[in-house]
UniProtKB/TrEMBL annotation:
<dbReference type="InterPro" id="IPR015421">
    <property type="entry name" value="PyrdxlP-dep_Trfase_major"/>
</dbReference>
<dbReference type="InterPro" id="IPR015422">
    <property type="entry name" value="PyrdxlP-dep_Trfase_small"/>
</dbReference>
<keyword id="KW-0808">Transferase</keyword>
<dbReference type="InterPro" id="IPR015424">
    <property type="entry name" value="PyrdxlP-dep_Trfase"/>
</dbReference>
<dbReference type="InterPro" id="IPR005814">
    <property type="entry name" value="Aminotrans_3"/>
</dbReference>
<keyword id="KW-0032">Aminotransferase</keyword>
<dbReference type="GO" id="GO:0030170">
    <property type="term" value="F:pyridoxal phosphate binding"/>
</dbReference>
<dbReference type="GO" id="GO:0008483">
    <property type="term" value="F:transaminase activity"/>
</dbReference>
<dbReference type="InterPro" id="IPR049704">
    <property type="entry name" value="Aminotrans_3_PPA_site"/>
</dbReference>
<dbReference type="Pfam" id="PF00202">
    <property type="entry name" value="Aminotran_3"/>
</dbReference>
<protein>
    <submittedName>
        <fullName>Adenosylmethionine-8-amino-7-oxononanoate aminotransferase</fullName>
    </submittedName>
</protein>
<dbReference type="GO" id="GO:0005829">
    <property type="term" value="C:cytosol"/>
</dbReference>
<comment type="similarity">
    <text>Belongs to the class-III pyridoxal-phosphate-dependent aminotransferase family.</text>
</comment>
<keyword id="KW-0663">Pyridoxal phosphate</keyword>
Length: 443
């Protein structure tokens, strides 16, 4: 019996022993196409020689130096690299080890900013239902997946939720996508007014929703309206690009495609491509300047902040992405993947929606296409698809719907940026077989 405490405590897990390119191998010698990059992490695939070499070089020099004594060359270079390519106004990088920590840092820095600027009444955070922002208590407080929150309800910080931007299910038939986007964005303004504008610190949202809604893209104009509302009421905009950022949607940051910049942004996953645990918060110059001119302190640090080996790894990952023009491949092969998915699932009886951007795609499964009725949760279709896909040598990221039927089961795809058309074809072929087998098994 395993002594590792797994997410599924009684679960039986294969033992991963190796990886090369888009493939992962287990101890039984079975190979899997990593079509989800784990959880949208392994954007360069596995065993990339340039990343391995950069890691060796750094570990030979310096693995660790505590940030209360030193900064390090890789941390400085990574921050410089990120800021040179960051959305407008972002000037500083806080480097941590995960997405949850990056979100925690955003919440804390937002709070510090308002203390420094004499607006300490701003303690409320607004986010969206059916969202995931991480597992630590602060991140869970803004998360909007009610079943994750339920056991900790009494322990969470004040969090307020508005509707997600979920075109497939929530747009009325008499609305254009644009009208729908503005209607749900305006829920933010209503919530700010209800709470009192001078009590609201920030609004938190994923630019493209990953785990909870399966690559749900925002309606056109939605984020522009959100940005206007935040500015009108002095509320900070925190974008969670932990999953959808760092090239996943075909531009380095997903918000570039929305034509807006946040005040704070969380990134992780693709930043280090899984070669090292790393996340980061990017902060606007306005916020950092307020602290610089005030107390001068952001008292929020952890032992592994700015870890030199993690930073050198992430820098190497980002340089390879640029050197090999991999975002052009994400756009090109993303279009190919979209075509293939729509051919295979566009008329499928049990697929209601195919959505996404770049190398970030989701299919939503339904018991009935016309009424969009989700499958019964107790069928555990998501678990069946995962099993059927693994049996066919394919890793995808299926997720269950909500118990109240406001979202259906979906499957998330996040193939590595190096994937070519032949890999995409194989992914869609195996996924099609796995979905059909899982549904046949469930019904
Ligand atoms: N935000 C989003 C959007 C995520 O998808 C995740 C991870 N799935 C997190 C935050 C938390 O990241 P981590 O698991 O690295 O703590």
């Amino acid at each position: 019996m395993s002594h590792v405490l797994h997410r599924s405590v009684n679960g039986a897990y294969s033992v991963a022993v190796g990886g090369k390119g888009v493939m992962l191998y287990d101890a039984q010698g079975k190979s899997y196409i990593d079509a989800s990059g784990g959880a949208a992490v392994s954007c360069l695939g596995h065993g990339h020689p340039d990343i391995v070499a950069a890691m060796h070089a750094q570990i030979d020099k310096l693995a660790y130096a505590h940030t209360s004594f030193f900064t390090s060359e890789p941390a400085e270079e990574l921050a410089e690299h990120l800021i040179a390519r960051a959305p407008k106004g972002l000037s500083n990088v806080f480097i941590c080890s995960s997405g949850s920590e990056a979100i925690e840092a955003c919440l804390k820095l937002a709070r510090h900013y308002f203390i420094e600027t004499g607006e300490s009444r701003r303690t409320n955070f607004i986010s969206r239902r059916q969202s995931y922002h991480g597992i630590t208590v602060g991140a869970l407080s803004v998360g909007g997946r009610m079943k994750d929150r339920a056991p900790f309800k009494e322990m969470l910080l004040t969090g307020h939720h508005i509707a997600p931007c979920y075109l497939y299910r929530d747009r009325r038939t008499d609305e254009t996508p644009e009208q729908y986007g503005l209607r749900v964005a305006d829920e933010l303004e209503a919530k700010i007014l209800e709470l009192g504008p001078d009590t609201v610190a920030a609004f938190v949202a994923e630019t493209v929703v990953g785990a909870t809604l399966g690559a749900a893209t925002p309606a056109p104009g939605y984020f522009k309206r959100i940005r206007e509302i935040c500015d009108r009421h002095g509320v900070l905009l925190i974008l969670d690009e932990v999953m959808c950022g760092m090239g996943r949607t075909g531009t380095l940051h997903a918000c570039e495609q929305e034509g807006i910049a946040p005040d704070l942004m969380a990134i992780a996953k693709g930043l280090g491509a899984g070669y090292a645990p790393i996340g980061a918060m990017l902060a606007s110059g306005r916020i950092v300047d307020a602290i610089r001119q005030g107390s001068g302190a952001f008292p929020h640090s952890q032992t592994y902040n700015g870890h030199p080996l993690a930073c050198a790894t992430a820098l190497a990952v980002q340089k390879v992405i640029e050197r090999d023009d991999l975002l052009a491949n994400v756009r090109l092969q993303g279009d190919h993947l979209e075509r293939r998915l729509k051919e295979r699932f566009g008329n499928h009886h049990h697929v209601g929606d195919v959505r996404g951007r770049g190398h970030f795609w989701g299919i939503e499964l339904v018991a009935d296409r016309a009424s969009k009725t989700p499958f019964e949760a107790n069928l555990k279709l998501n678990a069946r698809i995962k099993q059927a896909a693994m049996a066919r040598g394919l890793m995808v990221y299926p997720m269950g719907g909500t118990a109240d039927g406001t979202a259906g089961d979906h499957v998330l795809l996040a193939p590595p940026f190096i994937a070519d058309a032949a890999v995409m074809d194989m992914i869609v072929e195996r996924l099609g077989e796995a979905v059909d087998a899982a549904i046949a098994d469930a019904l």
